[in-house]
Amino acid sequence: MLNKEAKEYLEIGIYSLQLAGNFPPPGYVRAQSADTRKVAKACERRVQTIDPDMLGSAGLSDNTTVYNSQVTLAENRRVAQFIVMKTTAQDGYERYALVSCATANTGGLGIYGAEVARTNASFLTLKFGKF
Fold this sequence. Notes:
The chain starts with a helix and ends with a strand. A hairpin with a 2-residue loop joins β5 and β6. It is globular. The chain has one domain (2-130). 27% of the residues lie in helices and 35% in strands. By secondary structure, it is an alpha+beta fold. It contains two helices and six strands. Strands 1, 2, 3, 4, 5 and 6 form a six-stranded antiparallel β-sheet that branches.
């Protein structure tokens, strides 16, 4: 169930980014509530272990460069989305990393992530997967 929720929220995050046409999409902020920070801390170690390049030098709990949605509460689960701009001076396009994390009070985790690029008003998926 957690993986399904994380995947659905990741798809919503990608769609929000595409729909907004700019960064960050509406509703994403760099201020983390206690709930958001708890979700970020629970998920960032796994993301950094499996794919250290995913967020670059940022961690999910880094609210100076990582934008996040508000936490959605459902029964005993919390879900949040995180987006970081990864564009560098060498890139000929904009790059974004998106991570969606679902946690349960029992300690379970569901994490999906994607890296997308925007070029010529089109979005391309560079990588997508479950952590």
